[in-house]
Specification:
By secondary structure, the chain is α/β, with parallel strands linked by helices. It folds into two domains: 117 residues, Response regulator (Rossmann fold, 3-Layer(aba) Sandwich); 108 residues, LytTr DNA-binding domain (OB fold (Dihydrolipoamide Acetyltransferase, E2P), Beta Barrel), CATH 2.40.50.1020. The chain contains seven helices and 16 strands. The longest helix is centred in the first third of the chain and has 13 residues. The relative contact order is 0.09.
Length: 242
C-alpha cells in the first residue's frame, strides 16, 4: 500500500517513515504543507494518508482532508498534538479513519495503520497521462486500476478544470481525474453536447435540470455549477432549441 505523510515536525516524520517501512508499505511522499501535499496526492493516489492538523501554509490538515475526499474517499489518520474539543469536532466533520494524539504510541499507530489498510474498500480513481483518453461516439474509455472502464457520455454531469487536470463528475457520484486541461478534453468530446458555462466548467446539456437566473447557477443532477454572465444568453438560446 502507498502511504502519504503530511507532517511538519521532522522528529515525527522520521518515526512515521520508519514505521511505514517496517510494516512493508511504500512511502507515497512527505509534505509539510498543503500545496506540495496536493501535488503528491494527485501524482501518487495514496491508499492512506497520515496527516497532522497543524501544517505549514494557508490550508490546515482538516481543509486538506476535505479536498482529498472530493477526489476520492481515501482513509485519513489525523496525528496531532491539539487536544481541544473544537479541533476534534472540526476534524470529525471530514470523517477521518482515526484521531491519534502526540506523542503517539508506536504500537497504537501500527495497529491503526493495519486496520485502516485492511478496511480499504473504495474504488480509487486513476489520473491518466495526456492523450490516454479515447472517444468513441457516445462513450470513451479511461484506465482504472489497470483496467479500461467505459464512461458513457450521457452519464456525465459536468467537467471541472483543476489546473492541468480535469475532474469528470458522473451521475452515479463517481469522479475521475484526467491529466488533461479542460480545453484539451473538450476537443475530444462530440461537438454540441456540452456547453462551457464558466471558464472552469463544461456541462452536458441534456443533464441540466434548471438555471437559477438570479444567482447565476446551473443545476445538473442536483449539483450547482457557476454560470458566467457572458454565457447566460447563449445557453438559454441553446436550451430553447433542444
Amino acid at each position: 500500500m502507498k502511504i502519504l505523510v503530511v507532517e511538519d515536525e521532522p522528529l515525527f516524520v522520521g518515526t512515521l517513515c520508519i514505521l511505514i517501512d517496517r510494516l512493508g508499505h511504500d512511502l507515497a511522499g512527505i509534505s509539510d504543507n498543503g500545496v506540495d501535499a496536493i501535488r503528491l496526492f494527485k501524482a501518487q493516489l495514496p491508499d492512506l494518508v497520515l496527516m497532522d492538523i497543524n501544517i505549514k501554509g494557508k490550508q490546515n490538515g482538516i481543509e486538506l482532508a476535505a479536498y482529498f475526499h472530493d477526489i476520492y474517499p481515501v482513509p485519513i489518520v489525523f496525528i496531532t498534538s491539539l487536544k481541544d474539543e473544537t479541533t476534534f469536532l472540526q476534524a470529525k466533520a471530514v470523517q477521518p479513519y482515526a484521531f491519534i494524539l502526540k506523542p503517539f504510541d508506536e504500537i497504537q499507530l501500527n495497529r491503526t495503520i493495519d486496520l485502516a489498510i485492511g478496511q480499504i474498500s473504495y474504488n480509487k480513481k486513476t489520473i491518466l497521462p495526456e492523450k490516454e483518453i479515447s472517444t468513441i461516439q457516445d462513450h470513451f474509455f479511461i484506465q482504472v486500476n489497470g483496467n479500461l472502464e467505459k464512461v458513457i457520455i450521457r452519464e456525465i454531469l459536468f467537467l471541472q478544470a483543476d489546473g492541468r487536470y480535469t475532474i469528470i463528475h458522473l451521475t452515479n457520484n463517481r469522479k475521475f481525474i484526467v491529466r488533461q486541461t479542460l480545453q484539451e478534453l473538450q476537443t475530444k468530446l462530440t461537438p454540441g453536447l456540452f456547453f462551457r458555462t464558466h471558464r472552469s466548467y463544461l456541462v452536458y446539456l441534456n443533464n441540466i435540470d434548471r438555471i437559477d437566473m438570479a444567482d447565476m447557477i446551473v443545476w445538473t443532477g442536483n449539483r450547482p455549477v457557476p454560470l458566467s454572465k457572458g454565457n447566460k444568453a447563449e445557453l438559454v438560446e441553446i436550451l430553447d432549441r433542444l
